[in-house]
Write a structure and sequence with these properties.
Number of strands of chain B: 2
Membrane topology (chain B): Multi-pass membrane protein
Shape of chain A: globular
Largest interface: A-B, 34 and 31 residues
CATH superfamily of chain B: ABC transporter involved in vitamin B12 uptake, BtuC
Distance between the termini of chain A: 58 Å
Number of strands of chain A: 10
Radius of gyration of chain B: 21 Å
Strand order of the largest sheet of chain B: 1-2
Keywords (chain B): Cell membrane, Membrane, Transmembrane, Transmembrane helix, Transport
Main location (chain B): membrane
CATH architecture of the largest domain in chain A: 3-Layer(aba) Sandwich
Helix content of chain A: 40-55%
Radius of gyration of chain A: 20 Å
Organism (chain B): Marinobacter nauticus (Marinobacter hydrocarbonoclasticus)
InterPro entries (chain B): ABC_BtuC-like, ABC_transptr_permease_BtuC
Largest sheet of chain B: 2 strands, antiparallel
Strand content of chain B: under 5%
Helix content of chain B: over 70%
Oligomer: heterodimer
Structural class of chain B: mainly alpha
Number of domains of chain A: 2
Number of helices of chain A: 13
Largest sheet of chain A: 6 strands, mixed
CATH class of chain B: Mainly Alpha
Number of domains of chain B: 1
CATH class of the largest domain in chain A: Alpha Beta
Distance between the termini of chain B: 16 Å
Number of helices of chain B: 15
Order of helices and strands of chain A: HEHEHEHEHHEEHEEHEHHEHHH
């Protein structure tokens, strides 16, 4: 079942890259980062629907929402009469994707690995699928240059910074980001270390663990603006990093999407860090 | 409404009305959805002819029809199971969740989702796509048998102990589920959240092949319980005096519920309220005789779930609401209204 399904994607992708089909005129995307890429490539006129993780840019609000990418409805997507659905590995249920493919929708599932390379590859893949290869190459060149410039900056540090990454999303309240998360991948991408050691995945925030982490910077990813209320988290407020302004509160899709705004996300994280060790060394 | 001297509806018109409601719900279920289909096309597909929309046949035959059938079966099984348990325990609060069936089934399913890549990897390779439904089914039946064993002493089964055992098993299964949730990765967490909310959104013929035999078996065995359950209403000691073997009756009742609900949870996740609300409603309208309550609960449970599902898939179209959520949203206030009305009467 799963193999047959994988075969579908592979055939779909190989046909697409061979551009046997005409370019899609009615496109549905289900993944915030992929939707962003479509807009950055100037192909948004083809979009007829997006999923609920696609909230950027703001124009996406005018498009029909087909639900959450992990619970894509078959009829809901088909009702928009798309000729192509571009989504990521996170899309589910597999059965509905397979049904869509059988109903004549070209279904492409792109890798959702959290690396800079994968982010660039995603842009190229979307470009190829939409017949906008030139635009995609140009965008990749720009994003790649931005990433390289930031990495040069982060390479000049004279200390190993530690970042405490907090996720305030959905009804899961406030959670610390441990290993095996997009947050961790972003922290390590800019050469920093995750201050929440010994945690795997996103786990409910332990107030003592926050105090014990003693990070150089605090990063808070919110799924909706204003979701994190500092008044409810005196431990975070007590942190030296928070008090000295080494903090960043930003949208979770911006920080964790690994889309075309990856360089901006990296830069924002890097800017939140103290420039030199001396500043942080003043910690009591 | 027409009511007889006891304030109840007579059975024949009630059945006719319910049959008509089911027909309406069935039409709504086959006829509505996010994808717009012309009525002509639906009729053509049902008649086996070529429709003007090339995907019409797929939408109707592969998506809506199995979804309707699965929804009806699950609703019917939950309704009957609730009626059986309420009769057996002589307790209007009993529902399939109470003796641990749902908790056991969901614990097993969540274990497959979370541990499928590690501790239960062998099981997943062995059972393939059946790994999750089969585990849920085994978990549901297993917990019922466990509760049964605990409550049985020297050939006697104490119903009160069974109820308490069910509550304790629920608590343990709930804690184990919580523990698994804690260790689940972000991705697993999201897939199990959707599973615990219950869904018919992925229904296909595969699910029917797996779940329908058990659910139909449970539905067919249920009528046999009607007269003994009536006797239970008079007290457990009366059951034996009336010539029924108490132990056998209890065993069959538990087996029917374990079999049916285990299979229902396996294919559709956790759908609440049907098992609790439907038998109550039937008793209010038609009286407490199980010869009426059991079959009508099945019919009404099925109809209600099909109707709720038809609403759930169009109300936020093109997206879809989880049916479990929809059910509680409709069932909760409805049940409260029923209670308040009874107080006045």
């Amino acid at each position: 079942m799963r193999l047959r399904w994988l075969l579908f994607i592979l055939i779909g992708l190989s046909l697409a890259s061979g551009s046997v089909f005409a370019e899609p005129s009615r496109l549905v995307t289900a993944d915030g980062a992929i939707t962003e890429i479509v807009y950055r490539l100037g192909q948004e006129s083809r979009l007829v629907g997006v999923d609920t993780t696609s909230g950027y840019p703001e124009q996406t609000a005018e498009l029909p929402k087909v639900g959450y990418l992990r619970a894509l409805p078959f009829e809901g997507v088909l009702a928009l009469k798309p000729d192509m659905l571009i989504t990521s590995e996170q899309a589910a249920p597999a059965r509905n994707l397979e049904r869509l493919a059988r109903a004549g929708v070209r279904v492409a599932q792109l890798s959702s690995r959290w690396t800079a390379e994968a982010a660039l590859e995603r842009i190229l893949s979307v470009g190829e699928l939409l017949g906008a290869t030139e635009e995609a190459r140009a965008l990749v060149a720009g994003v790649e240059a931005d990433i390289r410039r930031i990495l040069q900056n982060t390479g000049n540090r004279d200390y190993q910074p530690r970042i405490l990454f907090i996720l305030a999303a959905g009804n899961h309240s406030v959670m610390l980001a441990g290993s095996d998360t997009a947050a961790n991948a972003l922290v390590e991408l800019i050469g920093a270390e995750n201050a929440a050691q010994g945690i795997k995945g996103y786990k409910p925030a332990n107030r003592e663990a926050i105090l014990a982490s003693r990070p150089d910077a605090v990063v808070i990813a919110e799924s909706t603006p204003g979701q994190f209320d500092i008044a409810g988290w005196p431990e975070v407020e007590r942190l030296e990093a928070w008090q000295s302004g080494h903090r960043l509160v930003a949208d979770s899709m911006f920080l964790l999407g690994f889309g075309p705004r990856l360089p901006e996300a990296m830069a924002a994280l890097n800017d939140a860090l103290p420039g030199q060790r001396e500043i942080a060394a003043n910690d009591p | 409404m027409i009511r007889d001297h006891s304030g109840r509806l007579p059975l024949a018109p009630a059945l006719l009305l319910l049959g008509a409601l089911l027909a309406v719900a069935a039409l709504a279920s086959i006829g509505s959805g996010a994808y717009d289909l012309a009525l002509m096309d639906i009729l053509k597909v049902v008649a086996g002819r070529e429709a003007s929309d090339p995907v019409a046949a797929m939408v109707v035959l592969e998506v809506r029809l199995p979804r309707f059938l699965l929804g009806f079966l699950v609703g019917a099984v939950l309704g009957v199971s609730g009626a059986i348990l309420q009769g057996l325990f002589r307790n209007p609060l009993a529902d399939p969740g109470l003796i641990g069936v749902s908790a056991g089934a969901s614990l097993a399913a969540i274990a497959v989702i979370v541990l499928g890549g590690t501790a239960l990897g062998g099981w997943v390779t062995l059972a393939g796509q059946w790994a999750l439904p089969l585990a849920a089914f085994a978990g549901g039946s297993g917990t019922v048998i466990l509760a049964w064993r605990i409550a049985s002493r020297a050939g006697q089964t104490a119903v009160a102990t069974l109820l308490l055992a069910g509550i304790a098993i629920n608590a343990v299964a709930g804690a184990a589920t919580g523990l698994l949730t804690f260790y689940a990765s972000d991705e697993e967490l999201r897939s199990l959240t959707f599973w615990t909310m219950g869904s018919l959104g992925h229904a296909a013929w595969d699910d029917l092949v797996l779940g329908a035999p058990f659910m139909i078996l449970a539905l067919m065995a249920a009528p046999w319980l009607a007269r003994p359950l009536d006797a239970f209403l008079l007290g457990e000691s009366v059951v034996g005096h009336l010539g029924y073997r108490t132990a056998t009756v209890k065993k069959v009742a538990i087996l029917v519920v374990g079999l049916g609900v285990g299979a229902a949870v396996a294919v559709s996740g956790l759908i609440g309220f049907v098992g609790l609300v439907v038998p109550h409603l039937v008793r209010q309208l038609l009286g407490a005789s199980h010869r009426v309550v059991l079959p009508v609960s099945a019919l009404m449970g099925g109809t209600l779930l099909v109707a709720a599902d038809a609403i759930a898939r169009v109300v936020v179209a093109p997206a879809e609401l989880p049916i479990g959520l929809m059910m509680s949203l409709i069932g909760g206030p409805f049940f409260l209204g029923l209670l308040m009305r009874r107080k006045v009467m």
